[in-house]
Design brief:
This protein is an alpha/beta fold. Helices cover 44% and strands 16% of the residues. The protein has 2 domains: 142 residues, Rossmann fold, CATH 3.40.50.1000; 65 residues, Orthogonal Bundle (DNA polymerase, domain 1), CATH 1.10.150. The strands form 2 sheets. It has a 6-stranded parallel sheet with strand order 5-4-1-6-7-8, with helices on both faces. The protein has a two-stranded antiparallel ribbon with strand order 2-3. α7 links the parallel β6 and β7. α4 packs parallel to α9 and α6 packs across α7.
């Protein structure tokens, strides 16, 4: 008998390369506040954390300035950012294989729900997933753990030992652990092998095909 039934996928860096659009959105937001954004090569730290976390912890924004930055970012994301995105090669084949193998798939992202749904429509990924869960500020669903808890209740997942998170940053590992779920780390995203191993990922996959193969699909 296989070990898992339910797979929870991160989005940015795990299914799609969203760095150009996210970077451009941050640049637009920071410049609207008179701040100079970092160079693209120094931006990796912002890929993965929730939006509020990045603006607060990496750029020192709080209160009205934080809310203003988020508003500008989300406006850019809705207008252009979602389209500055590409599907990671091999991802769709891996999803197809996992779906055919009988796994239940959910998307667990801290990207805003509306943005997440726009990206899913762009790449027609909805056919592979039973549930799409992003962040919703007005519901208190902001952190990775918040999103995972929502999925656990919504599907529901009666046995957490039968669920596996798949993601590219330590935020994925930490959020899943907080909810009692193991994580498979992917090495083709925005995190490193050292980061994921240190966080406690149980396996590191260099490609989407390896993810599917590791899970017997």
């Amino acid at each position: 008998m296989r070990k898992y039934d339910m797979l929870l996928f991160d989005l940015d860096g795990t299914l799609t390369d969203s760095a150009p659009g996210v970077y451009n959105g941050f640049c637009r937001a920071l410049r609207s506040l008179g701040m100079e954004p970092p160079e693209f090569q120094d931006f990796k730290k912002c890929m993965g954390p929730p939006l509020t976390y990045s603006f607060k912890n990496f750029f020192g924004l709080e209160g009205e300035r934080l809310e203003a930055a988020k508003r500008v970012y989300l406006e850019y994301a809705a207008a252009r950012g979602y389209a500055e995105n590409s599907l990671i090669p091999g991802v769709e084949d891996a999803l197809r294989r996992l779906r055919s193998a009988g796994y239940t798939l959910a998307m667990a992202s801290t990207k805003a729900q509306e943005q997440l749904e726009s990206v899913v429509r762009r790449f027609a990924l909805g056919q592979y997933f039973d549930l799409l869960a992003g962040s919703l500020d007005d519901s208190g669903r902001q952190s990775k753990a918040d999103v995972i808890r929502y999925i656990v209740k919504a599907l529901p997942i009666p046995d957490l030992s039968r669920a596996l998170m798949i993601g590219d940053r330590y935020f994925d590992v930490d959020g899943a652990r907080e909810c009692g779920i193991e994580t498979l780390g992917v090495l083709y995203g925005y995190g490193s092998a050292a980061e994921l191993a240190s966080a406690g990922a149980l396996h590191l996959s260099p490609t989407p095909a390896d993810v599917a193969a590791y899970l017997g699909a």
